[in-house]
Amino acid sequence: MTLVFCSFYHSFRSLFVAIALLSVTIGCGDSNDNDTPTVAQLTTLEGNWKVNALKTDPKVLGFDDLVPVYTVMYGTCINDITFSFKAGGAVGYDNPASCASSAVSVATISAATGIDANSTWSQSGNTLVITTSKGAKTTYTTTFGTSTAQLKWQGAYDFTMSGTQTNYNLTLELRKL
């Protein structure tokens, strides 16, 4: 009886191990199942955008992102603005209530971003040129994600209001709506 039980036990154990190994092998199929949808990377600024960050190098008074500074100084205006890059080259932004009721002005937004309410834009590859309504041109290098864009440029600014301009490398980070 013991011999029959031991033989049955070993056969059952061998069968269990074989089934377990088979299920692991089948269950661990190719990880490239293509079940996950892919999201295309953006290639143009055409559309509506919100500001995520305005990065500076070197830092301004210890800050490498001016959006939190603008938020403390002017409320949520910079976060509430929608920039619109339209087909045909027009670019502008809205004037949300938070901007109308704050100390921030259109000139402040234009100075910080290089974009005024009646600018034009053109893009070739990763190069973007924005021309303000006064004719000032700024050339940006663009980098796109699946729902974001970074506009990088260099400029001399007096962010500290000291009377002296400093050369900055700037990155405007935008989020597509």
- DSSP strand count: 9
Mind telling me the C-alpha Rg? 28 Å
SSE string: HEEHHEEHHEEEEE
Question: How many structural domains does the protein architecture include?
Answer: 1
Q: Please report the number of helical segments.
A: 5
Helix content: 25-40%
Q: Biggest sheet, open or closed, and with what strands and sense? A: 8 strands, antiparallel, barrel
Instruction: Tell me, briefly, the overall form.
Output: globular
Cα separation of the termini: 76 Å
- By secondary-structure content and strand pairing, the structural class works out as alpha+beta
CATH class, please?
Mainly Beta
Beta-strand level of the residues, as a percent range? 35-45%
Strand order, largest beta sheet: 1-3-4-5-6-7-8-9
Mean pLDDT, rounded to whole units?
81
CATH topology: Lipocalin
Low-confidence stretches: 2-27
Structural account:
With 177 residues, the chain is an alpha+beta fold. It has a single domain (47-176), classed as Lipocalin (Beta Barrel), CATH 2.40.128. It is 29% helix and 37% strand. The protein has five helices and nine strands. The chain has helices spanning 2-27, 66-74, 77-80, 97-100, 106-113; strands spanning 47-60, 63-65, 82-85, 90-93, 119-124, 127-131, 137-144, 148-157, 166-176. It has an eight-stranded antiparallel β-barrel with strand order 1-3-4-5-6-7-8-9. A hairpin with a 3-residue loop joins strand 7 and strand 8 (148-157). It is globular, with a radius of gyration of 28 Å. The N and C termini lie far apart (76 Å).
Properties at a glance:
177 residues, alpha+beta, Lipocalin, 8-stranded antiparallel β-barrel, 29% helix, disordered N terminus
